Amino acid sequence: MKSIGFIGLGTMGAPMAMNLLKKGYSLTIYNRTTAKANELINLGAEVVSSASRVAKVVDVLFTNVSDDQALLDVFYGVDGILEGIHPGLTVIDCSTVSPETSRKIAQELAVHYADFLDAPVTGSKPAAESGSLVFMVGGDQEVFTDQAELFAALGSKSLYMGPSGSGSYAKLAHNTIVGINSAALAEGVALAVKAGLDPAQFLEIVQSGGANSKQAELKATKILERDFSNQFSLKLMLKDLLLASKLSQDFKFPSPLLNAATNLYQIGLSKGFGDQDLSAIIQCYEDWMHEEVKKRPTQPNFDRKVSEAESNRRRNNRVPMNISLQLSVYQWEQEGSFSGQNIKGVLYDLSENGLQIASSFPLAKEMFIVIHFPQEADLPPITGKIIRIEPKTNEFRYGCMLSGLPPYVRIKLEEYIDVKRAEADLD
Predict the structure, then answer these.
(1) Which alpha helices (DSSP H) does 229-376 contain, by range?
(2) Per CATH, which fold does 308-426 belong to?
(3) Is the pTM of this model over 0.85?
């Protein structure tokens, strides 16, 4: 088995290194801040005092640092990688840097009969922890193929993009879209809140319509709960957008959306949000409209008042209505990627908090599902959250809380269920 080195144990590097250890690889590490290496040492990693020492003793060396200058320093600085280079070494750089820097290092290593792959990733900290990153790789294709097992150990997919620098080009183009989408999400949400709309309800509309994006799916909860803990920092997004802006200048073509997003993140950095998650850009709009975007107190799922007699009837009359449902279940894989499947279910009952659904398919608490009613109901897809699970002999019954429904949909849903209940009672 190949011996592996890892330099750069930050937000992404540390969980990547941990996954290599868990897969049984021998790992030698170096980080300027030695305290970040303690957990890896406890798992069996060997820590050394310089980048050159890592390079001397491993077959493959991963680097994952913050920017171009940090990468150049770790290669060319005192006790840098180049001082420990040896023929046959492969360096895989997962940093997001300029294609120019990637090509420069690749050419330098080739002189020493060593190989270099620029292999930035998509997927933030959770994907690094779960081993579900996606690698976009530039360099020699044969070298890429030789390292396939390592990419598989760390990610769910690796794509060969072309010669040296191609991985870096792909990452900057990708993050241009991410940055613009995130900025658009913040601006749209701010506009809705300023108009007096419930942000949770509005974001549910976004995720159900043409405005949806992976950023909306990944960042909506962080915005509503004002959780700006770092998964991918605002300052790193700005760094990537500035690199992309330089590329557009080099290519001599206009990039108005990129320029607007870059300006917005520069404002965010100037306001002190740089070390927070990129979703913190919403705070710029909050400053401008003098209002916070946050989750509002939970409202009852059905606005119409229910009489005590009717409420008791609903609690006591647990007659299955046999309304067939299609449930869409989505699972997070990595930043920018979800997987999903459709399963069958039956509407069992209406509760004060939402719906009770029966299905033979096992689901988990806190999971969100999209409920599709029969065509006769004339209801849009409705999002629900699993809050209670009651195992039965051949099925599970799920308490499903609904939120953010427009009043007319709430009324229409309740009326439809009352009709179906009456039909069940007659039978």
Answers:
(1) 234-251, 256-270, 282-289, 308-316
(2) Thrombin, subunit H (2.40.10)
(3) no
Contacts of 40-49 spanning 24+ positions with Cβ under 8 A: 40/9, 40/14, 43/18, 45/17, 45/21, 49/79
| pLDDT exceeds 80 at position 330 | no
Q: Which candidate, 171, 167, 189, 422, places its Cα nearest to that of 288? A: 189
Domain ranges across the chain:
3-162, 170-289, 308-426
pLDDT of residue 395: 87
CB atoms within 10 A of CB 25: 21
Among the listed residues 104, 125, 171, 239, the single catalytic one is: 171
In 3D space, the residue among 422, 196, 409 whose CA is nearest the CA of residue 302 turns out to be 409
Instruction: Calculate the average pLDDT of the chain.
Output: 88
Whether residue 333 contacts residue 156, with contact meaning beta carbons closer than 8 Å, is answered with: yes
CA 198/CA 193 separation, integer angstroms: 7
> Which token pair is 63?
């680097």
**Is-catalytic flag, 271?**
no
pLDDT grade, residue 322 (50/70/90)? confident
Each residue's pLDDT tens digit, 366-404: 888 888 999 888 888 888 888 888 888 888 888 888 766
Give the span between the Cα atoms of 107 and 113, in whole angstroms.
10
Topology (CATH) of 170-289: N-(1-d-carboxylethyl)-l-norvaline Dehydrogenase; domain 2 (1.10.1040)
| Closest C-alpha to 398, from 368, 427, 355, 369 | 355
Position 369: which residue type?
I
d(CA 424, CA 427): 5
CA distance 222 to 421: 39
CA–CA separation, 404 and 298 (whole Å): 9
pLDDT in tens, 181-223: 999 999 999 999 999 999 999 999 999 889 999 999 999 999 9
Pick the CATH number of 3-162 from 3.30.920.30, 3.30.70.1050, 3.40.50.720, 3.90.1720.10: 3.40.50.720
Closest CA to 385 of 184, 200, 202, 232: 200
Bridge-based pairing state of the strands 46-47 and 354-359: unpaired
